[in-house]
């Protein structure tokens, strides 16, 4: 009968250990799921950062183009101002 008493204890012990292992594995699965979700979120953030970088790069290129055009316009205006001053000087000289 000692053998019969030890069987239920052994079965309960195994069930307890099995229950603990299942709980531990469940916790590991939850932790793994959280890591996968974090990785997925990190990928989303990296993708968003890359898209923002492309937008900023386009804005910078557009700004550089605008500055180049403004420089050309400034050069033309300076030329016309100088030309206008020369004409004014010539007119003054003629009117004397």
TrEMBL record:
Localization per record: Lysosome membrane
InterPro entries linked to this entry: BORCS7
Residues spanning the signal sequence: none
Entry keyword Membrane: yes
GO cellular component: BORC complex; lysosomal membrane
Domain of life: Eukaryota
Keywords: Lysosome, Membrane
Membership in a protein family: Belongs to the BORCS7 family.
Family annotation (PANTHER family): BLOC-1-RELATED COMPLEX SUBUNIT 7 (PTHR31397:SF1), BLOC-1-RELATED COMPLEX SUBUNIT 7 BORSC7 (PTHR31397)
Name assigned to this protein: BLOC-1-related complex subunit 7
Provenance organism: Gasterosteus aculeatus aculeatus (three-spined stickleback)
